């Protein structure tokens, strides 16, 4: 009888201790908390698309819902569109009848690769007449990173809000089941042009070791946008900003 009682007590103790450990391992997520602010996280790589022809998803977009200050960019699983998340709001660009179509529901959607951050405090820089093109933006960010002492050591998000005199962008949408390679990749891009549009742009500046993995080869930045009417979105190929645009940098790194 004593043996049986001892065994029951031992099992009860084990059950309770496991429950306590499980509860202690669960983390409550609130994006307003400093501990849940992060500048750069990533899943997958563009190289798995170009070198391996692998179009499978690496991260469920649903899994990022707890982060209300979320910014993210990447291609949708199967190369069926572009993922742009701006301040927690998702813009999934695909094509319908060869024209851009925006969906804001992330349920059961995943990205092949994704760069993302959860940031709620930014500092502002005015884009002067010398900051117009993507090259100008990259040069500006490099100089700012050098001043902050993080030029080659950190990847971080940045935002731009304002008017673009002109914008060339693409939505990637693979059709058919041909094996994917670099030639097929370029064929899958459908390009569009906007003029004199107000935009919200989210970009990532990456450290040197991530160049070519989350950006095009030889580039340190990767840019997506959504227009003011939220009628279109996609990957920026060419950009010319109008004067008065504002650049936002994460306050954790910049003063």
Quick tags:
19% helix, 255 residues, 4 helices, alpha+beta, disordered N terminus
Give a verbal description of the structure.
The protein starts with a helix and ends in a 5-residue tail after the last strand. 19% of the residues lie in helices and 39% in strands. Mean pLDDT is 87; it is low at 1-33. The chain is an alpha+beta fold. It has helices at residues 2-25, 46-50, 134-147, 182-187, and strands spanning 38-43, 59-60, 70-75, 82-86, 89-96, 99-103, 110-111, 114-118, 122-126, 156-172, 189-205, 221-227, 233-241, 246-250. The strands form three sheets. The protein has a six-stranded antiparallel sheet with strand order 1-8-3-4-5-6, with no helix packed on it. A hairpin with a 2-residue loop joins strand 5 and strand 6 (99-103).
**Number of separate strands:** 14
Mean pLDDT: 87
Q: Tell me the structural class.
A: alpha+beta
Oligomer: single chain
Order of helices and strands: HEHEEEEEEEEHEHEEEE
Q: Give the termini distance in whole angstroms.
A: 70 Å
Radius of gyration: 22 Å
Uncertain segments are: 1-33
**Basic shape:** globular
- Our estimate of the beta-strand percent is 35-45%
Q: Output the number of helix runs.
A: 4
- Name the strands of the widest sheet in spatial order: 1-8-3-4-5-6
Let me know the largest β-sheet.
6 strands, antiparallel
User: Helix fraction?
Assistant: 10-25%
């Amino acid at each position: 009888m004593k043996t049986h009682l001892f065994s029951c007590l031992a099992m009860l103790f084990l059950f309770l201790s496991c429950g306590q450990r499980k509860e202690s391992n669960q983390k409550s997520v609130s994006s307003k908390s400093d501990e849940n602010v992060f500048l750069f996280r990533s899943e997958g790589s563009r190289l798995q698309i170009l070198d391996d022809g692998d179009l499978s998803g690496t991260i469920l977009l649903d899994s990022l819902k707890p982060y209300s200050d979320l910014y993210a960019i990447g291609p949708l699983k199967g190369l069926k569109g572009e993922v742009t998340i701006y301040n927690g709001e998702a813009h999934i660009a695909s094509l319908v009848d060869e024209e851009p179509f925006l969906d804001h529901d992330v349920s059961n959607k995943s990205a092949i690769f994704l760069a993302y951050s959860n940031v709620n405090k930014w500092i502002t820089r005015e884009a002067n007449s010398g900051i117009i093109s993507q090259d100008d933006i990259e040069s500006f960010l490099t100089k700012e990173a050098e001043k902050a002492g993080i030029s080659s050591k950190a990847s971080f998000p940045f935002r731009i809000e304002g008017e673009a005199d002109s914008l060339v962008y693409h939505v990637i949408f693979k059709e058919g089941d041909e094996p994917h390679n670099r030639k097929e990749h370029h064929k899958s891009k459908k390009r569009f042009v906007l003029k004199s549009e107000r935009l919200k742009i989210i970009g990532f500046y990456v450290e040197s070791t991530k160049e070519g993995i989350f950006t095009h080869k030889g580039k340190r930045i990767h840019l997506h946008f959504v227009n003011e009417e939220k009628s279109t979105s996609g990957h920026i190929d060419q950009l010319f900003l109008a004067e008065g645009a504002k650049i936002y940098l994460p306050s954790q790194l910049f003063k």
